[in-house]
Amino acid sequence: MASARVYAGRSAEQRRAERRNRLLAAGLDLFGGQGYRNTSIEALCTAAGVSTRAFYEEFTGREDLLLALHDQVAARAYDAMVETAAALGDVPLPERTDAILCAFVRAACTDPKAARIAFAEVLGVSPAVDQHRLQWRNRFVEFAMVEIGRAIERGEAPQRDHGLTTIALIGAVNELVVEWVVRGRTVPLETIATEAARMAYAAFTAS
């Protein structure tokens, strides 16, 4: 039975995973190049070398593929922040903020096309996409609130409700990345990261 599932040395599961990866690569190239709204399912299938039927076996539609690509960027950036924070130990808040925001920006912008998808192409697509983005934003807020709580305990930040400040900061950092994307990446990523860290430190230490 198992041998019947193998074709050209690959199992059905392997072939399906390869097909999904080709569609993700096509979405990254087309959504991140010509834009989500300018890309049809037919164009995605042609680029991936799969049939329309095969596309719908992997994704419910373009929006589903868009969210999968957004998740890749968001997860990469989130994991980079968590790993950086864990490795910093008792580093003071200014250096800690700089390191964490630099990790976020580098991870989110590793691929300019992926950054365009995650920070620009997802905007205004649908209420479902907006809700998905909100769920990710809440995860970043939770992470930031843990870091702020740590700073308060160490006397590096004032004791107050930093929730709205955190939401505003996330929006500001996102806009910096959008600016980097739409301006053709004329501003060095290091400058974006430094500005984000400067804003974060100023916001969290304000009384």
UniProtKB/TrEMBL annotation:
It comes from Pseudonocardia thermophila. This is Transcriptional regulator, TetR family. Residues 40-59 bind DNA. Gene3D superfamilies: Homeodomain-like (1.10.10.60), Tetracycline Repressor, domain 2 (1.10.357.10). InterPro entries: Homeodomain-like_sf (IPR009057), HTH-type_TetR-like_transc_reg (IPR050109), HTH_TetR (IPR001647), KstR2_TetR_C (IPR041490), Tet_transcr_reg_TetR-rel_C_sf (IPR036271). GO terms for molecular function: DNA-binding transcription factor activity; transcription cis-regulatory region binding. PROSITE patterns: HTH_TETR_2 (PS50977). Residues 17-77 form the HTH tetR-type domain. Keywords: DNA-binding.
